[in-house]
Specification:
This protein has about 120 residues and is an all-beta fold. It has no helices and eleven strands. It has strands at about 5, 10-15, 20-25, 35-40, 45-50, 60, 70-75, 80-85, 90-100, 105-110, 110-115. The protein starts with a strand and ends with a strand. The mean pLDDT is about 95.
C-alpha cells in the first residue's frame, strides 16, 4: 500500500496558477504510475492527469490539456500538478492517486481543495 499526502490547494482568482504536490511513501516510488483526479461539488470524480513511472509519458483530460502539467521527482517521491490559467470550473477537490492506470488505482490521497473565483 502506498500512502499519499497532497498539499498546495487554496483559493485563487481565475487566470492564476497553482501547484499541487503529492508526497508518497510506503513503496518504491519510481516503480508505479501516479495521477490526479478531481471532484467538483455535485459532480462525479473525473480523471485529470497521469504519468508513467519513468516520467516521460504523460496523459491529460481534454479539459486541462495545455493548461496543466504533471511531473514527478523520483528522488523526492513526489508528484506535482502545475495548474496554469485556472478557470472557475477547475474548482474541485483534487486527489492524488498511485499504483494503477485509467480509472483503476490502488492508492488515493485524502484530497486538497482548489477553489477558483471568477
Amino acid at each position: 500500500q502506498v500512502q499519499l499526502v497532497e498539499s498546495g490547494g487554496g483559493l485563487v482568482q481565475a487566470g492564476s496558477s497553482l501547484r499541487l504536490s503529492c508526497a508518497a511513501s510506503g513503496r518504491t516510488f519510481r516503480s508505479y504510475a501516479m495521477g490526479w483526479f478531481r471532484q467538483a461539488p455535485g459532480k462525479e470524480r473525473e480523471f485529470v492527469a497521469a504519468i508513467r513511472w519513468g516520467g516521460t509519458n504523460t496523459y491529460y483530460a481534454d479539459s486541462v490539456k495545455g493548461r496543466f502539467t504533471i511531473s514527478r521527482d523520483n528522488a523526492k517521491d513526489t508528484v506535482y500538478l502545475q495548474m496554469n490559467s485556472l478557470k472557475y470550473e477547475d474548482t474541485a477537490v483534487y486527489y492524488c492517486v498511485a499504483d494503477g492506470w485509467s480509472n483503476t488505482w490502488n492508492s488515493w490521497g485524502q484530497g486538497t481543495q482548489v477553489t477558483v473565483s471568477s
